[in-house]
């Protein structure tokens, strides 16, 4: 008979290693905890998870209805940076800490951001198409219209871990980096060689605008039509954060009307996009399938981290990362080390 039961919905939101919970269980077996699968629908999950000691949130949203039905749950753990699939307010009200993995795939996302920036700037997709279509001679004339990268300005919206890693990568290219983040001290930006700026300054001064705001209700559609109109007509917009932070209809209009030159996107409002999404047919858009965090270490790192977080809380200790630290104050967990309270996804 296990000492603790961790309930998780059947199925996986993303994986490369197939099913099974061997990696998560490395930490859980030592404390007598086991992972049990439950139906992948709200009603079925509620019935199965009522007496769970912990929830491993994966393939269905952890709604207020689910959270309020939990009678003894000590923690909800996510194997992702983003936490928008969990009703954080409901979890906090119940005193249930929610953990994520905010520092596991920083380097990969930063690499992908720079890849999209450079691919959009040097018109990689367009150049590839010219070669394949026998239009070799058109390649050089197209790039003769593009300025030199060094000396241009990269503007970051939000200055969390990924944005800081992007800044480190951008500076050797000769880019001037500015950032907007009202929750980060200006001295921290300065330590990274980044100039603090207002949102308006980032939009109007930047040749590249890179979105890194977390997926939270307060930043839903943070960028809309009025913001794209403030950007340079030559600007390239990059988003490896969350699609919901941008009003996609406005972004599409900005590209159609020529308010900005290009969008390089790893995330969209609806994923996967519908077949009639205008972005799919636009040469002024470079798209990838929400893959910025992916690498060979992806599954192992995130699964082991989930297991460790679950084991810590079930053992009566604070987790390493907590997106709702107010919930920890309502528990009897022991603070064994400083908890990460940094804000959410791809921030």
UniProtKB/TrEMBL annotation:
The keyword Cell division is annotated on this UniProt entry: no
MF annotations from Gene Ontology: (S)-2-hydroxyglutarate dehydrogenase activity; glyoxylate reductase (NADPH) activity; hydroxypyruvate reductase (NADH) activity; NAD binding; phosphoglycerate dehydrogenase activity; transcription corepressor activity
GO biological process: L-serine biosynthetic process
Residue ranges of every copy of the D-isomer specific 2-hydroxyacid dehydrogenase catalytic domain listed in the record: 37-293
UniProt KW keywords: NAD, Oxidoreductase
Gene3D superfamilies recorded: NAD(P)-binding Rossmann-like Domain
Cellular component, GO, one term: cytosol
EC number: 1.1.1.29
D-isomer specific 2-hydroxyacid dehydrogenase NAD-binding domain boundaries: 114-292
Family to which the UniProt record says this protein belongs: Belongs to the D-isomer specific 2-hydroxyacid dehydrogenase family.
Designated name of the protein: Glycerate dehydrogenase
Organism of derivation: Variibacter gotjawalensis
Recorded name of the encoding gene: hprA_2
């Amino acid at each position: 008979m296990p000492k603790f039961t961790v309930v998780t919905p059947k199925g996986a939101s993303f994986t490369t290693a197939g099913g099974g919970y061997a990696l998560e269980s490395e930490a859980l077996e030592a404390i007598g905890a086991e992972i049990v699968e439950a139906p992948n629908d709200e009603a079925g999950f509620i019935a199965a998870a009522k007496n769970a000691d912990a929830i491993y949130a994966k393939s269905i949203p952890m709604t207020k209805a689910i959270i309020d039905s939990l009678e003894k749950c000590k923690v909800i753990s996510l194997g992702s940076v983003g936490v928008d699939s969990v009703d954080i307010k409901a979890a906090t009200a119940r005193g249930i800490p929610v953990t994520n993995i905010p520092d596991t795939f920083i380097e990969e996302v930063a690499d992908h951001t720079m890849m999209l920036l450079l691919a959009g700037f040097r018109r990689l997709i367009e150049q590839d198409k010219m070669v394949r279509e026998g239009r070799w001679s058109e390649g050089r004339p197209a790039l003769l219209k593009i300025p030199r990268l060094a000396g241009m300005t990269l503007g970051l919206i939000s200055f969390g871990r990924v944005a800081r890693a992007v800044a480190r990568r951008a500076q050797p290219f000769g880019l001037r980096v500015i950032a907007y983040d009202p929750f980060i001290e200006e001295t921290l930006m300065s330590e990274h060689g980044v100039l603090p700026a207002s949102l308006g300054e980032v939009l109007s001064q930047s040749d590249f605008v890179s979105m890194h705001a977390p997926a939270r209700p307060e930043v839903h559609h943070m960028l809309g039509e009025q913001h794209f109109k403030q950007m340079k007509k030559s600007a390239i917009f990059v988003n490896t954060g969350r699609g919901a932070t941008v009003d996609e209809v406005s972004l599409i209009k900005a590209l159609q009307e020529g308010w900005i030159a290009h969008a390089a996107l790893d995330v969209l409002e609806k994923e996967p996009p519908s077949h009639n999404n205008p972005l799919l047919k636009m040469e002024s858009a470079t798209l990838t399938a929400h893959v910025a965090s992916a690498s060979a270490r992806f599954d192992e790192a995130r699964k082991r981290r989930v297991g460790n977080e679950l084991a810590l809380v079930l053992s009566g200790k604070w987790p390493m990362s907590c997106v709702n630290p107010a919930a920890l104050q309502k528990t009897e967990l022991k603070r064994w080390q400083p908890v990460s309270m940094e804000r959410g996804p791809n921030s």
